[in-house]
Amino acid sequence: MRLVIVTGMSGAGKSSALKMLEDSGFFCVDNMPIPLIKRMVKAILLDDTDMDKIALGIDVRSGQALNGMNEVLRSLKCEQIPFEILFLDASTDVLVKRFKETRRTHPLTGVGRVEKGIELERKKLNFLKRQADYIIDTSHLLIRELKAEIDQILFADKGYANFFITVLSFGFKYGIPADADLVFDVRFLPNPYYIDELKRKTGNDEEVFDYVMKSESAGLFLNKLEDMLTFLIPNYIIEGKNQLVVAIGCTGGKHRSVTLARGITQRLETLDYGIKIEHRDIDK
User: Fold this and answer.
1) Which residue from 77, 30, 75, 79 is spatially nearest to 54, judged by alpha carbons?
2) Sheet (strand 2-8) strand order
3) CATH assignment at residue 31
């Protein structure tokens, strides 16, 4: 039997994750009373049933009973009942935005400020996050990207380091991305904008990509950036960081930044981290 405990911050995508697991053949129970978890799992193990994949949704809606979850986990370990914990997280700013957009009430605030409820929820769920086998930060994920991450870590038997990288191209003329962790300026590279046949194309077009990458400086930049990121990421993980936004900018965000974002993404895809690429200003 495979038992997955799905937990995390309200608004981070737990319900969506449970739905995806249900579509993949899991028997899913959301907000199950914590005192009943061990009893239900043992009953399934003892019974002749075809329920070999179970996902349980646990979160702060359990109230004071959440304090007993640690004892449930210890008991499952003592009885050698294997389980995995999937923790869905997101930045506070993103969670606040999601609650405002959906007009939902945070379970810990009622009519109070959402930010305070989120802060309290983080404290209450910290013990589960520390024990999580998988952490997915959904701050920058679309639903289909969340599904791809879940498929990768639960069904593809692929190593996963609880770390997600977003490579973001942008144009300095439109401002530096507010959520960027690392910002790199590639305006030193030859600019396709001044080539008539390339001006209206973007770094997603091979002609532009090849024009930028034929510069020796572009290759050297990618080598140095790859070297730095492969050094930084394991150290970020040690310090508890689970996501990284790498922003690469040029003047307008159409040519050089898109090209270099594509280049570094191709190199990082060989590592065992989640990764996606975004082009913020490519259509401006």
Assistant:
1) 30
2) 27-30, 53-57, 2-8, 84-89, 134-137
3) 3.40.50.300
Query: Each residue's pLDDT tens digit in the chain (284 positions)?
Result: 889 999 999 999 999 999 999 988 899 999 888 989 988 888 887 776 677 889 999 998 888 889 899 999 999 999 888 999 999 999 999 999 998 888 778 888 766 688 888 999 999 999 999 999 888 999 888 888 888 888 877 776 544 456 789 999 999 999 999 889 999 999 999 999 999 999 999 999 999 999 999 999 999 999 999 999 999 998 887 776 778 999 999 999 999 999 999 999 999 988 878 788 999 999 99
Domain final position from 123, 155, 187: 155
Distance between CA atoms of 166 and 277, rounded to whole angstroms? 6
Range of the domain at 56: 2-155
Whether 224 is covered by a domain: the verdict is yes
Contact residues for 63 (Cβ-Cβ < 8 A; gap 6+):
none
Look-up: residue for tokens 């050094």? 231
45 vs 27: CA distance, rounded Å: 14
Residue 284 covered by a domain = no
- Nearest CA to 87 among 141, 45, 138? 138
